[in-house]
Specification:
This protein is an all-beta fold. The protein has one domain: Jelly Rolls (Sandwich), CATH 2.60.120. 0% of the residues lie in helices and 41% in strands. Strands 3, 5, 6, 7, 10, 12 and 13 form a seven-stranded antiparallel sheet that branches. Strands 1, 4, 8, 9 and 14 form a five-stranded antiparallel sheet that branches. Strands 2-11 form a two-stranded antiparallel sheet. The relative contact order is 0.38. The mean pLDDT is 90.
Length: 167
């Protein structure tokens, strides 16, 4: 199954910020082992991801249920995505996507690049949270100090989610 987010808008300026994108359980119509995430940059600037993680959400909207799993790009923890382009993580063969559970994709954008993740307009069930200031807590189970961005844009940086090896 490939879940396409529909992200097609630009959202400029995220230096030293962590983004947590919540993918609602209602959009996850298949379960299975293996997951990959396609990230995309907007039309004006690139996107530098310094690190990224995925995991199921707990009751609080932007916290992980268990320790999240690191996402890698061609063997690296980071990726530079050119403007109006995308890149896909390695397939996490042992990650099991569960129906009925929200997923969180969390990633950190470095201080230097003033990134532009592609996003989409508000969509029921989708949520995005951010925290800026350079503090990396991308993999924190119980994160604090995040602001919600859902009223303006959602799905920041996340273009597709491939479940079961499809993407």
């Amino acid at each position: 199954m490939v879940l396409t987010t529909g992200a097609d808008q630009s959202d400029l300026g995220w230096p030293g910020c962590t983004m947590r994108v919540v993918i609602p359980a209602s959009f996850i119509t298949a379960t299975g082992s293996g997951v990959a995430v396609k990230f995309g940059a907007g039309k004006s600037r690139g996107l530098h991801i310094a690190e990224a993680f995925i995991g199921h959400a707990r009751v609080l909207p932007f916290n992980f249920e268990n320790a999240p799993t690191v996402l890698k790009f061609k063997g690296s923890l980071e990726a530079q995505i050119n403007k109006n382009s995308s890149t896909t993580t390695h397939l996490l063969r042992n990650f099991v996507v569960k129906q009925g559970k929200n997923l969180i994709v969390a990633f950190f954008m470095d201080d230097e690049s003033n990134d532009e993740p592609v996003a989409k307009l508000p969509t029921a069930g989708w949520r995005s949270f951010y925290k800026c200031g350079g503090e990396r807590d991308t993999d924190a189970l119980r994160a604090v100090g995040y602001d919600e961005r859902t009223s303006k844009f959602v799905s920041h940086g996340v273009l597709e989610l491939g479940i079961g090896g499809n993407i």
